[in-house]
Specification:
The chain is α/β, with parallel strands linked by helices. The protein contains nine helices and ten strands. The structure holds adenosine-5'-diphosphate and magnesium ion.
């Protein structure tokens, strides 16, 4: 469904993405693994046109989206992509219900009378009861906030969901619940999922395919099984979370 070809992204002198080549198959979950600062968020921001690419192509259903200049066409494309921000980014001044329907107002012409039904349906999809809709985001736990953010993404019925570190900052049990939810949504809705993560446990559980991003390139692409069996010392070190190996943490440099 999505083909990334020779994608480059530089910020000034800094080559964050050097030559990224990756195919994202329809209806599957692809995890993008990589250390902090390896360019994972940059990659998905390029995918949804939030960042301009420095080179290469991103083909969606065969069309290069990096060449789209029309705002109308770009908006139509973005509507097909749901982006779950790393920070969740709920609006504190709005109720949960208003947060869930926020995108509907701007991106669709769904009539307002349908909102209560949609709020109930999308909250149910993420395992929350309808009465949560009245609450304010400040009254929610971290895990519930993630779920409400996800319900807001689901409200516009995207074909592709991009999750930016959905389990970061959550305790292990809540992380596992979110992983189950990602699996569940794939099964129920048939969505294509792209999950950025450095949570190995979650990646092995949810991924159909994993891509390992390192120094601006995809170092290894394969199934979770391929990752478990790999001899690549960089990938092995990351998978086992060891401080000993070829990956030297640049603790002081950045
Ligand atoms: N808008 C920006 N301007 C300049 N540098 C940026 C910008 N966004 C990201 N970077 C840099 O690009 C690198 C990768 O960032 P990011 O994609 O956020 O990494 P990750 O999500 O893998 O932790 C970092 O070194 C970061 O400082
Ligand atoms: Mg990031």
């Amino acid at each position: 469904m999505i083909e990334i070809k020779h994608l480059q992204k530089t910020f000034g002198e800094k080559h964050v993405l050097k030559d990224v080549n990756l195919n994202i198959p329809k209806g599957k979950t692809t995890c993008i693994l990589g250390g902090s600062g390896s360019g994972k968020s940059t990659l998905i921001k390029c995918l949804i046109g939030l960042l301009e690419v420095s080179g290469g192509q991103i083909l969606v259903d065969g069309r290069d989206i990096t060449k789209i200049t029309s705002e109308v066409k770009l908006a139509a494309l973005r509507r097909r992509f749901g982006y779950l921000f790393q920070e969740g980014a709920l609006f504190d001044s709005m109720s949960v219900g208003q947060n869930v329907t926020f995108g509907l107002k701007y991106l669709t012409d769904v009539p307002e009378k349908d909102y209560p039904k949609i709020i109930k349906e999308k909250l149910a999809l993420v395992g929350l009861r309808e009465d949560v809709a009245k609450l304010n985001p400040s009254e929610l736990s971290g895990g519930m906030k993630k779920r409400v953010s996800l319900a807001r993404v689901l409200a516009v019925e995207p074909e592709v969901i991009l999750y930016d570190e959905p389990t970061t900052g959550l305790d292990p049990i809540m992380s596992d619940i979110i992983s189950d939810l990602i699996i569940d949504l794939k099964a129920k809705l048939g969505v294509t999922s792209i999950v950025i993560t450095h949570d190995m446990h979650s990646a092995f559980k949810i991924a159909d395919y994993i891509a390992f991003l390192y120094e601006g390139n995809i170092l290894l692409y394969g199934t979770p099984e391929d990752f478990r069996k790999t001899d690549n010392p960089y990938v092995k070190q990351f998978v086992t979370g060891s401080s000993h190996g070829p990956i030297q943490m640049k603790l002081m440099k950045e």
